[in-house]
Amino acid sequence: RVVADLPAHTTLSDGTMTLDEVPAAAREAGVDWVAVTDHDSVHPEIDAPVVERDGVRIVRGIELRVDAGFGRLDLLGYGVEHTGALDAEIDRLQRDRRERGAAILDAVEERLGVDLDIEPRAGLGRPHIARAIDESEAPYDYAGAFDELIGNDGPCYVARDVTPLDEGLDLLDDACALVGLAHPFRYERVDEALDVARESAAIDAVERFYPYGRAVDDSRIDRLAAEADLLRTGGTDAHERTLGVAGLTASAFEPVRDRLPEAVPTDGSATGDSAAAATPDEQD
C-alpha cells in the first residue's frame, strides 16, 4: 500500500483541501505521511519541517516553478526550514501572483462582460479563475476556460515572473532536507528536464510515481536514479481531497524517510519515528 503521498496541495494555493482536513483524508486513504507542497509558498500553519497531526506525519514543503531557459520546471522541496532568502523570494512571487491574477481577471471580465467576484490575493492561480468562470454565466466550463481563455496561448493569458533555475536550486538546497524534480514526463522537453536532474548537485530526487499526464517511462527513471544517485519520490499531487492514488510503499519510502527530520507533534514536543510501523496536476 501507499504509505507516503508526496506531494499534495491545500487552499493556500490551488487545492480545495484545508490543512486541517489533511489528516482525515490521509487516514481515509491509509496514508501515514503527506507532503504539503503549495505553489511558491510554505504553509504558515505547519510549524516545523515535519509535524505530526492526529497520527499523520505532514512534511512541510514547497512546489517552486523555475525558468530553465528551455522551459519552465517544477521543483519540490521537502522538509523546509525558513531562510531569509527563500522567504523573500516567496514574498516576491506572491506579489507577482496578485498582480498577474488582477491582470487576468480584468482581461476575462472585459472580454466576457461578467463579474467573477474574485479579489486578487497571494496564492491566486489560474485554477481559481477557471472555477469562477465555470460558475459564472459565461459559456465556458473549467476545461473550456483554460482551452479558450486563460491557457498559455489564450487571449487572456498573462505570464508569471518565475524564479530562474539556478536561483531556485540554490534557495531550495539551502532550505530543504530534500529537493526533487516534479513530474518529468509532463514537460514538452523531457530530455532536457531529466538532464537538469542528472547534472544538478542540488537535486536529490526525481518523481517516479504520479498518476497523470504523459505515461512515465519507469525504466528510464530507474536508470537515471541509479546513475545519478537520485531518490525516487511520488504522490497523488492532490488538488482535491483524495490521497493515496499514487505515492511510495513502505520499502520505497524508507530511503526518503532517512533524509527527513524527525516529526514534531502539534504540542511542540519531540516524537519518535513511526515510519517502521508504517488528480492531474493543476496549471497555476
Q: Got a strand count?
A: 10
Largest sheet: 10 strands, mixed
- Please work out how many helical segments DSSP would assign: 8
| Strand composition percent | 15-25%
Q: Report Rg.
A: 19 Å
Beginning-to-end CA distance, first to last residue: 30 Å
Uncertain residue ranges = 268-282
Report the helical percentage. 25-40%
Give the class from helix and strand content and strand pairing. Answer: alpha/beta
Q: Strand-and-helix sequence, N→C?
A: EHEEEEHHHEHEHEHEHE
Query: What is the averaged pLDDT score?
Result: 92
Shape: globular
Structure, described:
It is a single chain. This protein is α/β, with parallel strands linked by helices and 284 residues long. It is 34% helix and 19% strand. It contains eight helices and ten strands. It has helices at 22-29, 84-112, 126-135, 142-150, 165-175, 190-199, 218-228, 250-257; strands at residues 4-8, 33-36, 50-53, 56-67, 72-80, 163-164, 176-181, 205-209, 231-234, 264-265. Strands 1, 2, 3, 4, 5, 6, 7, 8, 9 and 10 form a ten-stranded mixed β-sheet that branches. Helix 7 (218-228) links the parallel strand 8 and strand 9 (231-234). Helix 3 crosses helix 4 (142-150) and helix 6 (190-199) packs parallel to helix 7. The longest helix has 29 residues, at 84-112. The chain is globular, with a radius of gyration of 19 Å. The model is unreliable at 268-282 (pLDDT under 50).
